[in-house]
């Protein structure tokens, strides 16, 4: 298994939190709101309810109860069948350290091309550069809750599945997901949960055994040792669940008041560090307990000081799956010069062996049918004390999902988060 070479002291990066910032199109929250309101006045996709209801006009908000199959525009058609791959170089735009070097090298050798990986630190930078077309990137890695805006802006190409037969290797629910019916524009990359990670040498109690494990983040005994993910929706959704608000995309002002009150109490109790480098801060001893993504607690073992056993690390996520589960995507950008090669690269990453090798490097689990979740420890992908970081397919049927929000609701959530950040 190829393991991540990242170590403490390297620059911090955020793989997905910034993909959920309001600045999807490289603009401010107010400007984004105005743009999306304008988008709502024109057709962008076919929204179908559970019964395949009548398509509606405007920007679609996809959800498990309201799946969306996006239209394919006349001026943005899939590539034809049977085309020869371009000569490259293939340009990939991704977060740092979110793609295994060995996986890239194997593709280069197979097709005799160069793969150029460019990285970004935030969505403002990424989308602005994509929109300008200054660099013709071929492939981009967002999270599922941004696909509606990307389709609306016509920044991505619809896929020709004849080049991606390995799509059948992934969980069936991702072969035609609710956020992109028929997988017209996306294929899945990784799946992950959001829970609580801690060090047993700094946190004496068994967090997983608490009646409400989220409460540990409010425990004043850990003041100055607590971390919260610097992602407005992920952090606030956790606060909602801890407070008994199960609609993590709620439009109810009363629910937002509950979240705001709990955030204020959190600040007073533990003065949490709002961060995206939990995978480094926890093993480095800067934190004792933190809200974390499952992939980052897996990566944390590689950041421990030399000689420090990974046995001190723990991770909790609800055993019944009723927590936050999410996934990232791979998309082919419309402005790229190598659409055939891009399709083949997606297919390469969906290959069973390639996907598992990549998992060993990035720490984030792919939704592959070949993976036996119960054997991830025996197979060396997870240490036994972090077996709870495995992501189970059935959880996607019961978990809470972070959705794109309406313009007004997005602004309301951001207002609460900005007030919290100002006092954090």
From TrEMBL:
It is found in: Periplasm. One of its GO terms (molecular function) is polyamine binding. Its main location: periplasm. GO terms for cellular component: periplasmic space. Keywords: Periplasm, Signal, Transport. It comes from the Bacteria. Residues 1-33 form the signal peptide. Residues 43-64 are annotated as: Disordered. InterPro entries: SBP, Sperm_putr-bd, TAT_signal. Pfam families: SBP_bac_8 (PF13416). The keyword Cell membrane does not apply. This is Spermidine/putrescine ABC transporter substrate-binding protein. It comes from Nocardioides agariphilus.
């Amino acid at each position: 298994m190829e393991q991540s070479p990242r170590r403490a002291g390297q620059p911090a990066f955020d793989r997905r939190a910034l993909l959920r910032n309001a600045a999807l199109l490289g603009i401010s929250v107010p400007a984004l709101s105005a743009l999306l309101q304008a988008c709502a006045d024109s057709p962008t996709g076919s929204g179908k309810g559970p019964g395949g209801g009548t398509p509606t006009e405007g920007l679609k908000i996809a959800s498990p109860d309201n799946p969306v199959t996006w239209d394919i525009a006349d001026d943005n058609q899939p590539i034809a069948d049977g085309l020869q791959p371009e000569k490259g170089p293939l340009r990939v735009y991704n977060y740092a350290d979110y793609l295994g070097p060995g996986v890239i090298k194997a593709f280069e050798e197979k097709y005799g091309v160069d793969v150029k990986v460019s990285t970004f630190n935030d969505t403002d930078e990424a989308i602005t550069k994509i929109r300008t077309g200054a660099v013709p990137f071929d492939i981009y890695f967002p999270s599922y809750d941004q696909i509606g805006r990307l389709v609306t802006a016509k920044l991505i190409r619809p896929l020709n599945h004849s080049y991606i037969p390995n799509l059948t290797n992934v969980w069936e629910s991702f072969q035609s997901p609710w956020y992109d019916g028929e997988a017209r524009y996306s294929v899945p990359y990784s799946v992950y949960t959001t829970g609580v990670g801690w060090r047993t040498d700094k946190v004496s109690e068994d967090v997983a055994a608490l009646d409400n494990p989220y409460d540990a983040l409010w425990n004043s005994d850990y003041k100055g040792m607590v971390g919260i993910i610097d992602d407005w929706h992920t952090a606030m959704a956790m606060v909602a669940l801890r407070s008994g608000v199960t609609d993590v995309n709620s439009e109810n002002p009363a629910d937002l008041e509950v979240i705001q009150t709990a955030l204020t109490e959190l600040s007073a109790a533990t003065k949490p560090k709002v961060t995206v480098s939990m995978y480094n801060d926890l093993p480095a001893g800067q934190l004792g307990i933190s809200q974390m993504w499952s992939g980052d607690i897996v990566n944390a073992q590689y950041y421990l000081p030399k000689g420090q056993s990974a046995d001190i690390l723990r991770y909790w996520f609800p055993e019944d799956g009723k927590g936050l589960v999410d996934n990232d995507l791979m998309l082919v950008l419309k402005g790229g010069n190598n659409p055939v090669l891009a399709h083949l690269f997606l297919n390469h990453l969906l290959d069973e062996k390639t996907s598992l090798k990549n998992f060993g490097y990035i720490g984030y689990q792919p939704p592959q049918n070949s993976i036996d979740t119960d054997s991830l420890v025996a197979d060396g992908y997870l240490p036994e004390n972090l077996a709870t970081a495995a992501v189970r397919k059935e959880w996607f049927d019961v978990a809470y999902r972070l959705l794109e929000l309406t313009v007004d609701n997005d602004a309301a959530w951001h207002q609460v988060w900005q007030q919290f950040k100002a006092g954090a």
